[in-house]
Design a protein that fits this description.
- With 359 residues, this protein is an alpha/beta fold.
- The protein folds into three domains: 11-74, Arc Repressor Mutant, subunit A (Orthogonal Bundle); 83-178 and 327-351, Response regulator (Rossmann fold), CATH 3.40.50; 182-323, Rossmann fold (3-Layer(aba) Sandwich).
- Helix content is 39%, strand content 16%.
- The chain has twelve helices and 13 strands.
- The strands form three sheets. The protein has a six-stranded mixed sheet with strand order 9-8-10-11-12-13.
- It is elongated.
Length: 359
């Protein structure tokens, strides 16, 4: 057994780190039996009490188990989930979304119902939150993390953490939940076409098209593909997303929605309907309707994606495309539990409810 003692660290923590790493990389496999505490004490050049304390910590983590007559045995290599983190990037702190507040509340409730403690990591512009998260994971103060919104540039960091994670994201990873899987996109496009709409505009608080007009990612590729299949015309001038401001996601949703509708409505020809991605655009849209004397649904039909628990004042008739934050929170937590118990994460499919709204 190759083991070099670092005098700057406690011997107990080094024994824990050694066996944890061996189990994680497969050097020790489920069912393998460890030597006796006396033998390990001789190997590590330390007292038996230090070995006992280190092995007890690994038993508590769920990596080892002690069996009568069998001694200390490697389990599935899965660490027991007793405390998890919820990571919130600086962008969503700036936005102050009601959705994010509700999601955190429901994640906390879901963890609590399972007897799991959790903490919320609020990041800063200098990303001190990521460093804090790394330290908590390496010191085993947390055994999993949920990411409010995972972006491609953040993925390598979370993939390197020595703990599992689940995330709200459009990336194609198994431990994710997305508002817009393929079946949901198909259902939305089919409903819009069934209502007799042929020309559609899109107002989105995030980036859905690149500067060259191509879809931003796979989910948006599927969106435009389904719209084409339903013979829905979406012209570039009828798309107003965050790329117009040169950012990934806007901070001032009200001003953005007002300016976005104005840009679409000032075109020579108007779309028959408008699809909103993000319910925080409603207030700015209402202001624009008042300013330009737009009547709904006479002048334009509205389709608004929102979360059911996030109550809004909707002063105009529209069709709501709703997911539930409670279901989202439960799925994210279950994915984390699945991974911590050695199972593939539960598929992140959210149900969609489509309903017509009249004020």
């Amino acid at each position: 057994m190759n083991f070099e003692i670092d005098p700057k660290k406690s011997i107990r923590s080094q024994i824990v780190e050694h066996f944890r790493a061996e189990i994680r990389k497969g050097g020790l496999k489920p069912g393998d039996r460890l030597p006796s505490a006396r033998e390990l004490a001789g190997t590590f050049g330390t007292a038996e009490s230090n070995v006992h304390h280190a092995l007890a910590a690994l038993v508590k983590e769920g990596l080892l188990t002690r069996r009568p007559k069998a001694g200390t045995v490697v389990t599935t290599g899965v660490e027991k989930l007793t405390c998890a983190a919820i990571y919130l990037s600086w962008l969503f702190i700036q936005r102050g979304e009601n959705f994010t507040r509700l999601l955190i509340e429901m994640l906390e409730a879901s963890f609590s119902a399972r007897g799991i403690r959790c903490m919320v990591i609020y990041d800063t512009p200098s990303q001190n939150g990521l460093e804090q998260l790394k330290n908590l994971a390496e010191n085993r103060q947390i055994q999993g993390v949920i990411v409010r919104n995972l972006t491609p540039d953040q993925y390598p960091f979370f993939a390197r953490l020595p703990i599992p994670f689940s995330a709200l994201t459009s990336m194609r990873i198994p431990n994710r939940v997305s508002f817009f899987p393929a079946e949901t996109i198909r259902e939305i496009a089919t409903r819009i076409r069934r209502d007799g709409i042929r020309q559609l505009g899109i107002l989105a608080a995030n980036q859905i098209v690149n500067p060259d007009g191509s879809p931003e990612n796979e989910i948006h590729q599927q969106l435009f593909q389904q719209l084409r299949r339903q013979q829905l015309q979406v012209r570039p001038e009828w798309i107003y997303d965050s790329s117009r401001l040169g950012v990934a996601k806007v901070l001032d949703s009200t001003t953005f929605a007002y300016d976005g509708f104005r840009a679409i409505w000032q075109q020579p020809e108007h779309p028959e309907a408008l699809l909103l991605f993000s319910d925080d655009l409603v207030s700015g849209l209402a202001m624009a309707f008042y300013r330009y004397n737009v009547k709904v649904p006479e002048d334009i039909r509205l389709y608004i994606h929102k979360t059911r628990e996030n109550e809004l004042v909707l002063p105009f008739p529209c069709t709501l495309l709703e997911n539930r934050i409670h279901e989202l929170a439960e799925t994210l937590v279950q994915q984390l539990v699945d991974q911590s118990e050695g199972r593939p994460p539960t598929p992140g499919r959210l149900s969609l409810e489509i309903r017509d709204w009249r004020p």
